[in-house]
Amino acid sequence: MAMKSLSFLAVLSLLALTLPLAIASDPSQLQDFCVSANTSANGVFVNGKFCKDPKLVTADDFFFSGLQNARPVTSPVGSTVTAVNVNNLLGLNTLGISLVRIDYAVKGQNPPHTHPRATEILVVEQGTLLVGFVTSNPDNRLFTKVLIEGDVFVFPEGLIHFQANIGKGPAVAFAALSSQNPGVITIANTVFGANPAINPTILAKAFQLEPRIVVDLQNKFKK
In this UniProt entry, which cysteines form S-S bonds (predicted)? Predict the structure, then answer.
């Protein structure tokens, strides 16, 4: 019972803390790019979503259910991220906020990644996590902390960050993000899984590796 109370109180607290950030975040891009169309007939994407007629809006447009349920973890990195954003909670459109639940297997991690359009605030509901982020060049300073149940940590917008389960059992965290569509760039997947593939010679020099090692990594991340 205490665990369930912590979960919902944590989510409410995260939403309250993140709302002020939304004002500064969502006037910017809500997707990776928005190429101008010559005519409205060619227009497919907008910076956000088209608005529903207010007369047709119902309470269900602002409702999402089931985030309290554990998700199966089957990914190679040992985590599952369940997002609640404008794509599955339509009432979030223009509100500048979203939410995720992260389930971690034993020794699982949410690997180094960035959110190009959002600051993230995370609270641990269950387990023990090692979390951290790295500042931009030239310092590349690492800020890291071990979190237990009820602890909160903030990842600044655009910076590479991660979480790793270092406890003896599964872990669960919730995070709020200051965008309705924060985006995610997982570093390894993006660099080694690019489609089409980045020239291995370029990556070999960037990472100071033998080209054959780069090719092996690219094969691992092929979609």
Answer: 34-51
Query: Is 140 labelled a binding residue?
Result: no
93 is in an annotated binding site: no
pTM of the model: 0.82
195 is in an annotated binding site: no
Pairing of the two strands 109-114 and 129-134: unpaired
pLDDT tens digit sequence for 47-60: 667 778 888 889 99
- Residues 66-85 have pLDDT tens digits of 999 999 999 999 999 999 99
**42 to each of 6, 35, 47, 50, how far by Cα in Å?**
48, 11, 15, 15
Residue with tokens 């999402």: 64
Distance in angstroms (rounded) separating the CA atoms of residues 38 and 115: 30
**Locate tokens 């602890």: which residue?**
151
CA 98 to chain centre: 10
Under DSSP, is residue 149 helix (H, G, I), strand (E, B) or coil? coil
* Residue 120 annotated as part of some ligand binding site: yes
Contact 98, 92 (CB under 8 A): yes
CB 109 within 8 A of CB 140: no
69 is in an annotated binding site: no
d(CA 155, CA 116): 12
